[in-house]
Amino acid sequence: MPSTARVSDIVETARPYVERVATDRKLQRNLRNAFGSAQKLYAGLPAEGPARHAAVCVASDPEFRDELGAIVNELRSASERIRRPRSRRVRNRLFLLALLGAFVLLNPMTGPPTRRWLKDRLFGHEHPLDYDYASG
């Protein structure tokens, strides 16, 4: 029987993986697809001598090989997603773009002409909006 400390260590080691599986939709889809493919393959095997029959199917049945390949690919994708940290690149780029846009729009030197240009592009020249705060 493992000690409480050993069980606690095992739980702490598994925690990030379990949390990742619980929150990552693409990883869940990979695991679900792999499980579904495995169920299809297992259902096609006879009750007696499934290992021998599976070997014959791998050697001769292209559909069986394709399904087995799908299982391997889905599990490989799931494994890579579990090991790879989540990318924050897109979020960081959007944040940087928003900061840059705010700087350009709110800067006293570039703000008024940029806001005028943006207003003209969005609403046309004849629109009565005026965003020139300096003129008051």
Please, could you describe this protein's structure?
With 136 residues, the chain is mostly helical. The protein is 76% helix and 0% strand. The chain has helices at residues 4-23, 25-43, 50-60, 62-83, 89-106, 111-123. It is elongated and about 80 Å long. The N and C termini lie far apart (79 Å). The model has no long low-confidence stretch (mean pLDDT 75).
Keywords:
mainly alpha; elongated
Task: Give a short summary of the structure.
By secondary structure, the protein is an all-alpha fold.
How many strands?
0
Give the uncertain stretches in residue-range form.
Answer: none
User: How many separate helices?
Assistant: 6
Rg is 29 Å
Intertermini distance: 79 Å
Give the overall shape, derived from the CA principal axes: elongated
Task: Write the topology of this structure.
Layout: H1 4-23, H2 25-43, H3 50-60, H4 62-83, H5 89-106, H6 111-123
Helix pairs in contact: 2-4, 3-4, 5-6
